[in-house]
Design goal:
- There is one protein chain.
- The chain is an alpha/beta fold.
- Helix content is 34%, strand content 23%.
- Strands 8, 9, 10, 11, 12, 13, 14, 15 and 16 form a nine-stranded mixed β-sheet that branches. Strands 1, 2, 3, 4, 5, 6 and 7 form a seven-stranded mixed β-sheet that branches.
- Strand 13 and strand 14 form a beta hairpin.
- Helix 14 runs parallel beside helix 15.
- The mean pLDDT is 93.
């Protein structure tokens, strides 16, 4: 029965040409079309029947399911997440099995008027009306990418994948135009006026339990040099550390006598703050400068010119936000692949549309404080920077610095170094939710 009702086709991964999708649609004659992205699929008893059943019940265009991952002799659960209108990442994980209603598949393919070399499957699923997640474990797939989550994190901005990125951007831009969420170039609101600020710029360092790295971050910030006529301070917000971080910061304020007037220490109360809440406290502090520049508590600036480069960028253009270029290093300063991350996919014309496809906008981030105080950070410990960047990009221009100004140091205690599947799904779902809200705002 299943053999008669399903035509099965294999695609070697989610990056594929439009031609391959059209060939599948042309060859499929059964009621259902199954596209498998991995060659070795083993089914739970009646798993295919269940996928057909849900497809019929929901009237979906395509269904996908939770599954098991086989790594050698080890079998682990591999749940996926619900699809939402903001799930515009081209690397959204559906698992290896996609079951389509053949009639709806053919109707979509008839509308695919651009021949992509890499974005064929992406184009197909963006055009689908309803994608249904089945939260049941229905099959086994062999997992071939066994890297830790922190090692996969930067795949989407790997310069070696530049041509793929360009096509994916073209594809999502066409999608936004079709649904009425595309933002035309140059239509920006006027920035709020600046009042008097105690310093030109503030380096913001939120931290919690970073005894191993906080001194490096603080020294890196305090050692910045700015030209005559400009000034800066360093605001360190400690969120109830229990590992000696607070004591290290207080010791630095005593030892660094020449910088005593530059170092501002804020101890949070016992309520929930997370990274976003720590930023909010810093930017609303009366000692905060006109520009606020990010420095994570386990990272360092590339050299002593980073703060001045941000000031220059802000004063050159009417930007609500400026984003720099970083390099990945280990704790010894050695470069890690893919090396320099400059986000050159950003363009003044289309960056804010493409921002809905990629999973981050880059680092370090600098903000025009009069604007940021009207937006604020969401009180969360993941995705808070992406949320603010999306919001700013909707109405205000974002500047870029393509010189390396930041060392993103990767080590075992990074919050995203080795997330389990539950944490990864939670993070991805939240960023998809941010995109959904932003998409809804742009549709309005």
């Amino acid at each position: 029965m299943v053999i008669d009702m399903i035509d099965t086709f294999y695609l070697p991964g989610r990056v594929c040409p439009t031609k391959a999708i059209k060939e599948i649609a042309e060859k499929s004659s059964a009621k259902y079309t199954m596209i498998c992205l991995k060659p070795e699929i083993e089914w739970v008893y009646l798993g295919q029947e269940r996928m057909m059943q849900v497809l019929e019940m929901t009237g979906a265009t395509m269904v996908y399911a939770d599954h098991f991952a086989k790594i050698g002799e080890r079998i682990t659960e591999a749940p996926v997440i619900d699809y939402q209108i903001g799930a515009l990442r081209d690397d959204f994980d559906f698992g290896a099995v996609l079951l389509w209603d053949t009639a709806k598949l053919k109707a979509i393919v008839d509308q695919m008027d651009t021949e992509y070399e890499f974005a064929g499957l992406y184009d197909l699923r963006l055009r689908a009306e309803k994608l249904e997640h089945i939260p049941e474990y229905l099959y086994y797939e062999v997992e071939t990418d066994t890297r830790k989550s922190g090692e996969k994190l930067f795949d989407y901005v790997d310069p070696r994948n530049r041509q793929v990125q360009i096509e994916m951007e073209q594809c999502v831009t066409a999608h936004l135009k079709r649904i009425g969420a595309y933002l035309k170039p140059g239509a920006y609101k006027e920035l709020p006026k600046a009042e008097d600020y105690p310093v030109t710029a503030s380096v913001i360092i939120p931290c919690k339990n970073r005894a191993r790295t906080i001194a490096d971050a603080v020294h890196s910030a305090l050692n910045q040099k700015v030209r005559e006529g400009y000034s800066f301070n360093v605001i360190v917000v400690d969120d109830n550390s229990t590992d000696g971080t607070a004591e290290i910061i207080k010791k630095l304020s005593v030892e660094c006598l020449e910088f005593r007037d530059k170092l501002v220490y804020i101890a949070q109360d016992k309520t929930w703050h997370a990274i976003g809440g720590n930023w909010n406290v810093a930017i609303h502090d009366p000692r905060c400068g006109k520009y606020a520049i990010q420095l994570d508590s386990d990272d360092t600036y590339f050299d002593e010119t980073t703060v001045q480069k941000f000031i220059d960028a802000f004063e050159k253009g009417e930007y609500g936000m400026v984003i720099g270029t970083y390099q990945l290093t280990n704790m010894a300063g050695e470069i890690l692949p893919p090396g320099v991350i400059d986000h050159r996919e950003w363009t003044d014309d289309n960056g804010r549309n493409n921002a809905l496809r990629i999973n981050g906008l880059g680092a370090p981030r600098g903000f025009y404080v009069p604007l940021l105080r009207t937006i604020n950070y969401p009180t969360t410990k993941y995705g808070e920077d992406y949320a603010v960047g999306l919001r700013i990009s909707r109405d205000y221009p974002i500047g870029r610095i393509y010189d390396v100004v930041y060392n993103c140091r990767r080590w075992e205690d990074n919050s995203d170094a080795n997330c389990d599947i539950v944490a990864m799904n939670r993070n991805n779902w939240y960023k998809d939710r941010l995109r959904t809200w932003e998409l809804q705002a742009r549709l309005k």
